[in-house]
Design brief:
By secondary structure, the protein is α/β, with parallel strands linked by helices. The protein contains 12 helices and 10 strands. It has 2 domains: 151 residues, Glutamyl-tRNA reductase, N-terminal domain (Beta Polymerase, domain 2, 2-Layer Sandwich); 140 residues, Rossmann fold. A 6-stranded parallel β-sheet has the order 7-6-5-8-9-10. The protein has a 4-stranded antiparallel β-sheet with strand order 2-3-1-4. The longest helix is centred in the C-terminal third of the chain and has 31 residues. The protein starts with a strand and ends in a 7-residue tail after the last helix.
């Protein structure tokens, strides 16, 4: 019995590639079941989130089935995506799943959302009759490993990316981010990552504004949000909790008078300003306003660097736990 993982994620593929291969949340089981039509394949699970699409395959000829799957994906979605795919075989595939479920392969290291997403993907595959002995044991073990990693290590402490550091600070200010409202000024990659990280922790309403309205619409669609014309973003300021700004403007875009003008309407609620532009988009004087919390790229990078140093030791411990737990699994062919 062979075990293979075929996938692409935020590290290997840009969003325009990832979105082409995304599987709707309610169709994961159907997709897994359809894969069993491939000769030599006995079991499958499909995981698809905004940051990854992965196919877990088991069967007597799973490696040959993986090659056929990639041929089909290239035929239906474009062969230009081929360099973005990765493959893991046997114990490497099992370890990869454990790392995914444990949050070690996420954009925000240690994030918990992927645990629930993987569980739902497995449940749908199980209900569809697409799994059997190998993948049932593998996924059940992986969920146990994910829980153990989070319980026995400090992997979730200290964000190691600018986006993660911003989310961590936001949670300190607002507590849980469920229902938090965000405006993104500028539609670059750093804005996308930070907004995605906030959404992954519960932020709901997302507004996007950019001098190019087409780009604003594109990012807003990706976030399930709403595009705002650049000359109208100040009107949105009264209703948001977080401002992410990353434009290429040579001078500040967000000024103290913009915030002062909506303070009373906002009832002086906390406002979190994330300035990830160089040169800076947000006038530093905005941080002097009483209920405003302003962090720029240098502060966020410093926090992320400090966390990376601490986290390296934790990653080693997480991988040790995963290796020990996988030894108990005795997967066929591994």
């Amino acid at each position: 019995m062979e075990l293979v993982c075929v996938g692409l994620n935020h590290r290997t593929a840009p969003v325009e590639v990832r979105e082409r291969f995304a599987v709707p949340a309610g169709k994961l089981g159907d997709s897994a079941k359809q894969l069993l039509e491939i000769e030599g394949l006995a079991e499958s699970v499909v995981i698809s989130t905004c940051n990854r699409t992965e196919y877990y395959l088991a069967g007597e000829q799973a490696e040959q089935a993986a090659a056929e799957l990639r041929r089909r994906l290239a035929a239906t979605h474009g062969a230009d995506s081929d360099p973005h795919w990765y493959e893991h075989h046997r114990i490497s595939a099992a370890k990869h799943l454990c790392r995914v479920v444990s949050g070690l392969d996420s954009m925000v290291l240690g994030e918990t959302e992927i645990f629930g997403q993987a569980k739902e993907a497995y449940r749908q595959a199980l209900d569809a009759g697409a799994t059997s002995g190998v993948l049932n044991r593998l996924f059940q073990r992986a969920f146990g490993v994910g829980k153990k990693v989070r319980t026995d290590t400090r992997i979730q402490e200290g964000a190691t990316s600018v986006a993660g550091a911003a989310v961590e600070l936001a949670e300190k200010i607002f507590g849980k981010l469920a229902g938090c409202r965000v405006i993104v000024i500028g539609a670059g990659e750093m804005s996308r990552q930070t907004a995605q990280a906030l959404v992954s922790r519960g932020a709901t309403s997302v507004f996007v504004t950019n001098r190019s309205f087409d780009k604003a619409e594109q990012l807003a669609a990706e976030m399930g949000g709403r595009a705002v014309h650049f000359d109208e973003w100040q009107a949105v300021l009264a209703g948001v909790d977080v401002v992410i700004s990353s434009t290429s403007a040579p001078h500040p875009v967000v000024l103290p008078h913009h915030i002062e003008s909506v303070r009373r309407v906002r009832k002086f609620r906390p406002l979190f300003l994330i300035d990830i532009a160089v040169p800076r988009d947000i006038d530093p004087a905005c941080g002097d306003i009483e209920e405003v919390y302003l962090y720029d790229i240098d502060i966020l990078e410093q926090l992320a660097d400090e966390a990376r140093t601490r986290r390296e030791k934790q990653i080693i411990e997480c991988d040790r736990i995963i290796d020990e737990e996988l030894k108990k699994l005795n997967l066929p062919g591994t």
